[in-house]
Amino acid sequence: PDDNYFLEGKGSALYKKDDLQTLVDSQPAKLTGEQTEFDFGEEGDRLVEIVTDPIQFNATRESGDADSRVYWGKNFLTVNVDNGDQPVNIDLRPGKYNATQLAAEVERAINAAYGDDSKIQVVQNVDDTLSINLFKLNADGSSTGLATAVSVDLLSDSYVSTVEGITLTGASPDFTREQFLAHAQAKINSALNDYAVDATTDVVDGASALGVANQLFARSVGTQMDGILTETQIVNLKHAKSTSSTPTTASTSVTDRYMVYSYQGKRPNLSVYDNKTQVNTTGTTVSFDATQNTMTINFASAPSNISINEKIRIAGDFTTADATAASYINGREFTVSNVSGSSITINTTGLSFPDDSFALTETDIYVMSDESESVEAFFEGSSNVYEGAQVNFSSEKIVIREIGDANKHAYTNSQMAMTGTHTFGNGSGLASLSLTNLATTGGSGTGATFDVDIDASGNATVSLNTAGSGYIVGDQITIDGASLTGGTSTTDDIVFTVTSIDGILSINSAQFTITQAIGNSTLDSLDILGLRTSGSANDLTTKTDWVDEKAPAIKVNYNENTQKLEFTVDRTILGTGTESNFNSFSVFGSTNAESTNNLGIPTQDDASTVLIRGGEVLSTEPFVADGEEIQLNDKRYGVTVKYNSDTQTFTFASGTTGELIEANGALGVDSQQKASGIVVGRYSLSEEDGSIIDATDHFSGDNHLMSVGVSKNDAIATAGTGLASTAAVSIGDAANEDLTSVFRMTNANGENIFNVSVNGISGVIEIPTGFYVGSTLAEALQSRINQIQDPVTGDTVGGVTVKYDSTSNNFTFTTGTTGNSSTIKVKGAARFGLDDVALGVGTVPQIYNLVQATNEDGVALYVDARGNVVTTPPDNLVTGYYPLYIDEGELTFDNGGRIISPKNLVHYERQEEGFSIALDIDFGQSTQFAQPFSVLNVEQDGFTSGRLDGLEIDASGTIRANYTNGQNNPLGKIVLANFNNQNGLKQIGNATYVETAVSGAAQVGEAGSEGYGNILSGSLERSNVDITEELVNLITAQRNFQASAKAIETTTTLTTTIINIR
Asked: Which terminus in the chain has less CB density within 10 A, N or C?
């Protein structure tokens, strides 16, 4: 460590550089919940249901039903990412999810809540009117549209705006995309209905122009329910039909229908049946055999309207004693497996019936059969709000309407009003008088005529003959006395008040007497359902419609890829070959609009016309949602949610990595780095309706599905580590022209079209043509890129920034998400330098995890203030950083390749054995560079090791040894001797002599010296050779060689001959 470190008198944990061998990615903060209470199965593929309709709340786990495995999707989680100022509260879309899909939906919802999406603002007097015109093809090929286009007022109330609490009057309201599409679809449906039949008077208006004069049906809606009725009820309905387009009493018939409100499994459901059959009034009425898995229902006589394989529904008023059995059958739909005499049998296999048999003697039980093809009932806004809608806008109102082509008609609801009779005490003295088809005056409507019968006592009974239209409850109707007496006196007038309007659909009665406490009041079941209060015989509001809200004739939607509104017309309803016979249509703004509005809807002059052929789509111009931002502050991006099937847990992770690091507290950290963080919980919710109990306490509740919350003590929070991840950046080339000057963008060659892909979510951006500079084009691109949304998953982009650099004259695109999964790719016109932009990819910095050194016993080691390694933590430990030690014998270098450690000479002491000198090594001139090894300076003063390869003797007699490494070393020298009398030597061998007295003493010298001669290496001395013998040996060897060669030649010849024989 730095010398100054020791001067501070501090110790530290011992960290060795050699122990830091593995680089790991910096990590985001994570929260892993406890094991989920829902059993997703080993592979996580079982489906869990999420509901958001308040009518379904009682079936959820959040209602206090610990056994329920249906979960409430509203106020689902509260999440705080990276220590934001305010947590976000998320809702899930209703549906069924496996574990992976649920994690993805939660991830989508969190990122959407934290994103930078804006709401759609409908500006008053600019965007408030939407016009639709339909055209017919003439014989000459021209087209003729409606005399007056269908006008849709987007700033008038719909049930959607009411449910969502959006104020429309005198305002320019903001809608989320889902709210806008649902509201717009509801208003289009309403405008088309009102075009055909005046909504105020219920008088047919433009139905013929639309070609729907014979396609009318009644739609009745109740008031908002006061609460959730917790019992199954049968509502007896009256359905009036006429065989005439102008109904009369004679042409009108009334049929009983039966609406079942089922509370089976605490899941309210509506269905309408044509037949109702009561069970036997004596003995056992319903019995279940657990051994045979069959249920038998007994009737007083053979049921004529029930057959094998038919679907039926049971509804009854059960006593408390039979509540358990009722929970399995009341309001439930079954399939008949057998009909025998006065009984029917149902196979209950797989229906989760009880283990024990039961037998009921209840008589107030009915079997509903033949689900009606004439009338249906449903909860308004609970589904199919617009095509592809993944959310609902439940108004908590019941809709009852006519269905089926056979039940469509040309008359309106008001033409079927005031059915029944009215009796009055006349007191005029008239008696025993019967008159028919008398005209009336007064009231809101017209055309009603009555039959009058006056008995002998003078009491008049007034019966409706012709219903007329437009009458309402409270109207005073007058039958002129002159028509009764033949005179002119008004004293004989019959004046009565309309007390009820039955119309096409009306409530007759409830089958069972059921009351329930709602708040501080006890209400009748029909009152709770919003169908009839004690002060009104019928709370239904009935209109005459022709548009099926579940399958509208004209649909509106939004294309996430092109960012345009899209309109389609159902060819089977309005197209050629139908009574409407329209060939094409157009959509435009207000008839006096002068330019395309903020919703991308063009003026009438600029509107395109699209054929009605089936599948054709009319697209408006792309537009940017410019209303209020959904998340004003603390935007966050890239949060992930994963499911682990092994531990059956969900893990939430921040979209950023890293820990809190002060400025200059780590390499490359110039300013304070915020810590990655994530907190997940839930509001405490009311078990009555799922509402938030305390909006100031964001984390006071539990989410049992995700297993996070205030009571989930085993949830594991993991802090972020390392350095902050970086965003993906894609940099364009320099534009072909100076974009600091104003330029005109056209649609020539598609230069205003940009293909963008962010984190795998792709979109096509169309920039409006016009005049721009680089910075305004960047703003236009940025706003539209951040509106890109995956049409399948609903995942949004968000957070992308687009900057124009006037110096380099190019564009830079940066994602809001960070990390190596963050990517961005842009493709645009070469004019803007965007024709070949490289893919941008984010990064996650890698770090070493600190591992404290230990001794051989595994005890953690420390370094005290004097540099000694100890096992006891020093009193004054360093904070803010930790010294990192290298092992002995290692060198460290800085980023410039200069040596850092060791600074001083490395000294080796002389040892008694093995090391004979004291040695100092100076590493001061050592360098380290980030490049391949290279030799900068070579000075050789040695050679490699070698082996003896041979000996030689030179002319001077020196003996030399030759080695394989090229070395040649002298080993010694041959000594020569000379004598005064060489003939006096005594021969003792072929070439060996010894001195004698005659020869004299040997005189020693070197070869090459005078008188000593030279040495010829590798030669034989002549005096030692017998020449004759050598010649004989040579001749012998030569003959042997010749003989051997001849033998080989003969052998070769024989071999060749043999081979050639055939």
From this structure: C
